[in-house]
Design brief:
mainly alpha
Length: 421
């Protein structure tokens, strides 16, 4: 019997990613409350979001390199300890500067999640299963974002906003105990059968690839495929996480002090996109398509699926907006499952976390620039008492970003060949 312990590992990655996004989503749901209590402007809130994304960018660069050296087990543990303490520290903040500092610490810690998770998938899965495995664990982002609109308003109403940060932040330490108990690399794990290990290693690199110096990674077109894919699309997801609650509140008078079915349904839909996106490219590979063709055709389709969000500007009912935004957010997660997997398609395992860190840095830099633009746009429209019109401008950018990124990727590396060194 082949054995299926690798899917237990994916479950651990899934729950880590769920907690990761639960912790980062809390502030978006508390935004209306904190705006009133601390007298924030949209620009103040943008500064706080930028503190997170800037620190996340730097953390990705650092964690990517460190995890390739110390391994995913220790790297993941360090990451979740930092971000869990930082999440709880939000409860001590009294000013926008204090929240900015707490968000910066949170971003630095959370940066370790994806480099460690993608490296783990590369270690535990053959290429034909990696996109599906990535899609499954990446769907934890959607579950975290789905749970938050139910959990956080309940905690807010029952206890207060400080407790919302403390309770959600403490969950990470439960996961840490499970990770340390159940995880080890496949070759050393006592629960992995000989047959499963052979399956995992069935698509190992056939030629010896010398270690690639970190600084030399920027010289590969394959690195720039990932950089471009992340830079132009990650900011869209940040917008979904940090501004959608406020958008529904201001445009459709959604009460964020109560559990939100609308946001829960929206982020539940994105889980389907994440897992389905990973399955589709894997299905094409099993049908005999070249790996690069399966990834690129799938990503082109997902880019097209993001375009309908432009129509949200004409939505007259909240459920119409939920429907259109759900399609785009699901497309993002399907895109994400595949763009992450291209790294392990193109690079040897010893360089995967480093490349994920570099691309994550690019995505976070985009995530620093875009929130600033959002803040300026929304503050300018707020002055004219037409805040919803400001969101309409942003939706156009969201709808076009994926097709633009796909075209750049195509010109940089049409066949996304594996690195040879």
């Amino acid at each position: 019997m082949k054995g299926n312990y690798r899917w237990v590992v994916v479950a651990l990655l899934f729950f880590a990613t769920t907690i990761n996004y639960l912790d980062r989503q809390v502030i978006g749901l508390l935004k209306p409350t904190l705006e009133k209590e601390l007298n924030w402007s949209e620009t103040d809130y943008s500064f706080i979001v930028m503190c997170f994304t800037a620190s996340y960018a730097i953390g990705l660069l650092a964690f990517g390199k460190v995890i390739d050296k110390i391994g995913s087990k220790m790297g993941y543990a360090i990451s979740i300890v930092i971000w869990s303490f930082a999440a709880m520290a939000h409860a001590l903040a009294k000013t926008s500067f204090g929240f900015g500092a707490a968000r910066a610490a949170l971003g630095a810690g959370e940066a370790g999640n994806f480099p460690a998770a993608i490296k783990t998938v590369a270690e535990w899965f053959p290429k034909r299963e990696r996109a599906l495995a990535t899609g499954i664990f990446n769907s934890g982002a959607n579950i975290g974002a789905m749970v938050a609109p139910i959990m956080v308003p309940w905690i807010l109403g029952a206890y207060g906003w400080q407790e919302a940060f403390i309770i959600t932040g403490a969950i990470g330490f439960i996961w840490l105990a499970l990770w340390w108990w159940f995880y080890e690399v496949p070759a050393k794990h006592t629960s992995v059968t000989t047959e499963e290990l052979a399956h995992i290693q069935s698509e190992e690199e056939t030629s010896e690839i010398a270690p690639i110096a970190w600084s030399k990674l920027f010289g590969y077109r394959q690195t720039w495929v990932f950089i471009v894919g992340k830079f132009f699309t990650d900011p869209i997801w940040w917008f979904f996480l940090f501004w959608l609650p406020s958008y529904f509140s201001t445009t459709f008078a959604l009460d964020l002090k109560k559990p939100s079915l609308h946001l829960a349904i929206l982020f539940t839909c994105t889980s389907i996109g994440s897992i389905g996106g990973g399955y589709i490219s894997g299905y094409f590979i099993k049908k005999g398509w070249p790996v690069y063709k399966a990834r690129k055709y799938s990503m082109f389709f997902f880019a097209l699926c993001a375009v309908p969000i432009i129509g949200a500007r004409w939505a007259t009912d909240i459920w119409q907006a939920v429907f259109l935004i759900s399609i785009a957010a699901s497309a993002h997660q399907a895109w994400s499952a595949n763009i992450f997997t291209t790294v392990s398609d193109m690079f040897p395992k010893h360089a995967v976390s480093s490349v994920v860190g570099i691309g994550g840095l690019a995505g976070s830099l985009g995530g620093v620039i875009f929130p600033y633009i959002i803040g300026v746009i929304l503050d300018s429209y707020k002055a004219d008492q037409a805040l919803s019109a400001g969101y309409n401008v942003i939706f156009v950018a969201c709808g076009c970003a994926y097709l633009f990124a796909w075209l750049l990727i195509h010109f940089i590396s049409p066949q996304m060949e594996a690195v040879q060194s």
